[in-house]
Fold diguanylate cyclase.
Amino acid sequence: MSQPIASLLFRRVFKWVILCILLFSSLQAYLNYRAIERNFDMTIRDVANTHIPLLSLAIWDIELQAIHKQISLLTKNTNIAYVVIKASTGQQFVGGNGGQSISDEHLMFDIPAPDGVGPRVGTMELVVDRSVLRHEVMRSFFIVLAEVLLLTVFIFAAVFTILRRDLERPMRQLADFVKNLQANKIATRLDLELGPRHVYNEIDLVVDGFRTMQDRLQKHIENQDALVSERTTQLQQAMDRLKKLSVTDVLTGCYNRLFFNERMPGEMHRAIRYERDLAVVFCDIDFFKSVNDQYGHAVGDDVLIVFVESLQRELRAEIDWLVRYGGEEFLIILPETSLPAAIEVAERMRLNVERDLKVPLPDGQYLNITASFGVAERLADDTLETLVQRADQWLYFSKSLGRNQVQPVSGRVTRDVESL
């Protein structure tokens, strides 16, 4: 199965571009992480330095309400999870989510005296929530990744469009032209639909080469047309002869058993489908073996030929057909024919053979021959084999009763013939 060249090139480049995107995104994410981390630490320290002077005054003046207010303001900062204020007097003030104090980063700050002189008045411990930093880093990474992906998609879309327009489309036009080009139209000019700003390139070289090949092929074909036509006619005639030989008996000219096996199932199918009559007549030349033994096979062949000619005079053109089933046995297929009508046809054939069929012998005498006939009509539950078998059994019955007759002798159909 063919693949568009633009898609093939796209897929080959895609994995390398994706690898470059991942490397670039990872590097950019790392740099962003370092910058965000520095900003994060600076923000925490700025917040702490902002609140330390106020806490110093509140602790110095023992303003408990002011201390709690500062703690509340500190914990409102999303980067600070927990705050612990320890006064030099031993008092301790806490605020925020104490459950995170163990896992997160702890920062310690001294709280100096308000005038900056003297010992410190306490310490401030801040528990930093690093999850905020991680969320910010991830958000930054995905933003960078999205930007790179959007840029890549845009570039690939542009490249893919250009490849399809300038490479795949002309090549597909060329392939379709070659695929649909017929032998009798080899000189059809190849013209590709190219853009208005098209520049002569390798595709045009291919087109020029193909046109040159077309011209040479056309000249060669013109010189060979007469010979090809003659050889084609001879071949067709030979095939027709072979086809005719394959389905006809060489000696008598009637159909052979191979043709019967091919055509008879269709006759049965039509008769069943449209509920039409179908009859078969099995016939056999009486004492044919003795003719061959007494007069030779040449006379036997003459007997077969004139016998077939006699049978064919009673057949309807393009409807009934005659098959040499084997040796001196013949099958007559009578579509659209009931059993009584088929018996009448068989009886006329028998009379023609008995009265008119005379084969000349080498001594000047004439050999009179007779034939026996068995007739069967398709029944509702018949198969091809059972229909032919029943006709064959009626033929056997005819020969067992003395030959030169048609069985059954009436329009009645009996299945007791199987017991014969």
User: Anything to note?
Assistant: The longest helix spans residues 5-60.
